[in-house]
Structures are given as C-alpha cells and as structure tokens.
Amino acid sequence: MSAISLEQLADRTIGRAPVLGTSRYIVGIAGPPAAGKSTLASGLRDAINQHESAEVAVVAPMDGFHLTNDRLRAEGWLHEKGQPHTFDVALFLEHLRALRITTEPAGVRWPEYDRKVHDPVPGPTIESRHRFVIVEGNYLLLERPGWADVRGLLDEAWYVDVDPAVAERRLYERHLRSGRTPEEARRKISESDLPNLQLIASGKKLADRLLTAHDGAYLIAESA
Fold first, then answer.
1. Of the candidates 188, 202, 193, 197, the residue with the CA atom closest to the CA atom of residue 162
2. 202-215 tens-digit pLDDT
3. Check: CATH 3.40.50.300 for 2-222?
C-alpha cells in the first residue's frame, strides 16, 4: 500500500478518461458515514479543475435522493432515515443515466440535501462542460435490488475506508451538532450507524481502489 496525494489522484483520473473514450468520466466514491467521502470528493474536484485551469469537474452527492420527511412519515420510516430503503434509488439511477447524455443543452439538474430543513431540494445543474463528475455516497457499491445497478454506471469506483472507532467518534460528534442528546447519539450509533457501516463495507470488494486518509494524503490499494 502506497501513499498518494490529491494532485496525483487527479492526474490519474484525468489520464484514464481518454482511455475509455468517453466524453464524461464518472468517478464514484463510496464508503461509510464519517469516512471522509465528501472531503475527498471536493478535494479531487478542486485538484482536477486546477490541473485543467477550468471548471470541468463537479461533485454530485447521493444525499439529494433522500425520500422527503413527509414520505418517510407516511411509510413509517422516519426513524430509519439514512438506510438504503429511505432513498429514491430509481430517481438516482435516472439521474446517473442522464449524466451520460452530455449533448443535452439543459444539462442535468442534480438535487441536494439541505441540512437546515433536513430534506432534498433542487440543486445546481451539471452542464456538458463538466467532463468529470464525482458521485459520492454510502451505497454506490451496495449489492441490493436497484442499488446493484449503480456500479455499472460508474467508470471507476473508489471505497474510502476508516477505522470503526474513528467513524464512531466522528458520528457521535456529528449527532451532537445536529441537536441530539448524548444518549440519543449513542443509541443512533449502536442501533443504526454501526450495523449500517458493516452493510456498506460488504461492497468494498467491488471498488477499483481502496483509500484511507493518512497525513494529508491517502493510502491506496487496488481492490482484488
């Protein structure tokens, strides 16, 4: 396992795109909550844009495909929010497929998750000039109906690994910031987060690369 910088990851990504002959290159970044997926995705986007001296890369988070709170209440799933069945995977797949149509003048409107209202809202448009799209989310490598179709729409898939103890500490702090009491945070972690972490980890074998944050860079291993 060797260390690699964000700039080197960007160089590799840019270099791989012409090999496939696609006009848009889609990188999926999967991993459990609090692993650092968003940090890696935004860092990779910025490194690619800096390398190309143009805004050619964009991040497309999976979080915008949460079912609304109203829908979750109607289904009795509000307490399970964040688990695979609480996302609109069909709509997510529809948007991923639309990303392949780079000639569409209107672009692809990508929803995002508003953490103030805790619901999905309309997001920015991914335009044809965005030749690199970095999709990040927990369940990109999940082998379940619907989710299993995601991997085939990604040109490359990375899995961000994290020590479970580190993830648990980060999740606890995140839950406190969101307004949960310490008791509620611990219950959420034990009843939902940790089992979910194990579920997400089951898909890491489908990743092209396994990455772990380390001293401002990433330890990288090619998946078997």
1. 197
2. 999 999 999 998 88
3. yes
Q: Which amino acid is at 118?
A: H
Tracing tokens 């990288």 back to the chain, one arrives at 220
Rounded CA Rg of the chain:
17
What is the C-alpha to C-alpha distance for residues 172 and 182, in angstroms, rounded to an integer? 8
Angle between helices 164-177 and 194-201 (to 10 degrees): 130
CA dihedral 80, 190, 157, 106 (to 10 degrees): 30
**Cα dihedral sign, 28-213-180-188:** positive
Spatial contact of 203 and 159, defined as CB atoms under 8 Å apart: yes
- The pLDDT tens digits of the residues spanning 43-65 come to 999 999 999 999 999 999 999 99
Give pLDDT, residue 220.
86
Q: Residue 123 in contact with residue 95, Cβ under 8 Å?
A: no
Sequence ranges of the domains in the chain: 2-222
What residues contact residue 101 under an 8 Å CB cut-off, 6+ apart?
108
pLDDT, position 165: 86
Q: What is the number of alpha carbons within 13 Å of residue 30 lying toward its C-beta?
A: 29
**CA gap 129, 55 in Å, rounded:** 8
**pTM for this structure?**
0.90
Comparing C-alpha atoms, which of 85, 9, 2, 1 is closest to residue 41? 9
Tokens of 20: 């496939």
Helix or strand (DSSP H, E) at 125: strand 125-126
Q: Which residues pair with 168 in a beta bridge?
A: none
